Amino acid sequence: MTRILVTNDDGVESPGLVALCDALAELGTVICIAPDSDRSGVSHSISVRHRVTMTPVPGRAVPTYACSGMPADCVVLGSYAFFDGAPDLVVSGINRGANLADDIAYSGTVGAAMEGLLVGARSAIAVSLAAPWPELAPEHHWSVAAGIARDRARGLLAEPLPEGTILNINVPNVRAEDLRGIRYTRQGRKRYHDRLAHTDENEAPGFYWVWGTHERIDGFDDADLAAVEDGYASITPLAIDRTQHDVLARLRVEGASV
Fold first, then answer.
1. Picking from 119-128, 179-188, 217-226, which range would have the lowest pLDDT averaged per residue?
2. For 116, which of 72, 97, 124, 241 could close a Cys bridge (C-beta 3.0–4.6 Å)?
């Protein structure tokens, strides 16, 4: 039986998590372990100095547990507690808000999928719904993103990607009939402005918000940002190996000549 571990960084109460679990249930045995509250922006953090706990969540169609740790902790805990260290597939999401371009570096959703590879899963997916954040969208079309994630999961279970690769999926927050299609994309780039700001002039000195507005700087029509802006779901293969191999080759040549 196919073994699937589901997690997120928005917390165990996220409706996107429930939609994802329900969509994946038809593919195999699904276990869900997610943070007990919102852990957005924690990237690939793990708990190295604190114990983590795991508590059953009643009333879910898929067995679900709330974890006191980070999204990556959830993957480790779930993998070794239920799947002997190696689920066939780890799926992280559905995140409320896009994980595109430079935001991938901050994303707990992507970090959890990367942890799936580290624990030995054959494949891993991060999936996000590009709904407005932090403002609430009038509607969240979770089922659209869940359906795309399920279809890609089915494909990966049949034919995994090369070792060390995850899929990062971002879906516009639109009805299924309004989605223009799917594009396979590169990671884009964006630049943030106003990185340090008080919420208002009455804020106590020394307290800041570090998030800001952004603009695209990549200029690539085949990038993830452009796809979602154009109404397409973006699917980007991401590698766990961050080595810049062209630079490494050049440095080796230069070093050999010294």
1. 217-226
2. 124
Number of Cβ within 10 Å of residue 211's Cβ equals 15
Q: Where do the H-state alpha helices sit in 54-141?
A: 71-82, 108-118
Structure tokens at 174: 């639109």
Q: Which residues, 6+ apart, have CB-to-CB distance to 40 below 8 Å?
A: 9, 10, 95, 97, 108
Structure tokens at 185: 């994309």
Burial class (CB in 10 A: 0-12, 13-18, 19+), 41: middle
Identify the burial level of 86 via C-beta atoms within 10 angstroms of its C-beta, where 0-12 means exposed, 13-18 middle and 19 or more buried.
Answer: middle
Distance of CA 2 to the CA centre of its chain: 21
pTM of the model: 0.91
**182-201: per-residue pLDDT in tens?**
999 999 987 765 655 555 66
How many CA atoms, within 13 angstroms, populate the side-chain half-sphere of residue 110? 26
| Count of all residues that appear for the chain in the document | 258
Instruction: Check residue 86 and give its pLDDT.
Output: 87
